[in-house]
Amino acid sequence: MKILYLLTVISFYLNIHQAKAQQKIEPGEFNVKNGTYKVQKLNDSLFFVANLNQNVPTEESDPGFLFVNRQLVNKDLIKPLILDALGANKELIKENKESILLDYSLLPNGKIISVAYIVNIRTKLSIQDITNIDYKLKNCFIGKIKSTQNLHLKLNSIPFTMELNLY
Question: Which of 44, 90, 95, 144 is most exposed by smallest CB count within 10 Å?
Fold first, then answer.
């Protein structure tokens, strides 16, 4: 009877532990709380991760405005948001000296409308970490954009790329 009870407790513990386990980043499509994410292997050392449910404007901007000189004035707020989104995994990510490349688009009002991520193939980040980062950036960050004569206001979306060290 004691053995049966012990086996039941161990089984229960293992089931809870597996339920909390995070999905490692690997090629494929993953349905998670914030949408469907696609992971592609770019080369022997990098993964590309993007949310397939993002609404990116499809209208073409005036070709004369494609090379608007623009600057994201408050980009320093992005790293703290990402670290906050990592929660308990933050220390593991810092110890592993992780970096992440963000390729994102903003509306002229500064709201993020799409983000794609490039991470090292040996990353300790999980799909859940990426979804948490995605959610945090899209819901908590409003970019302050500066451009010559405010020409960015005439664009449908404004692309930016940045690499961040997470340690």
Answer: 44
Q: What is the CATH number of the domain that holds 103?
A: 3.30.1150
The position carrying tokens 């292997």 is 41
- Structural domains in the chain (count): 1
pTM listed for this prediction: 0.79
- Residue 155 CB-density burial (10 A; 0-12 exposed, 13-18 middle, 19+ buried): buried
Query: In this structure, are strands 46-51 and 70-72 parallel, antiparallel, or unpaired?
Result: unpaired
In a domain, 9, yes or no: no
CA gyration radius for the chain?
Answer: 20
Residues near 92 by beta carbon (within 8 Å), at least 6 away in sequence:
124
Pairing of strands 158-165, 99-106: antiparallel
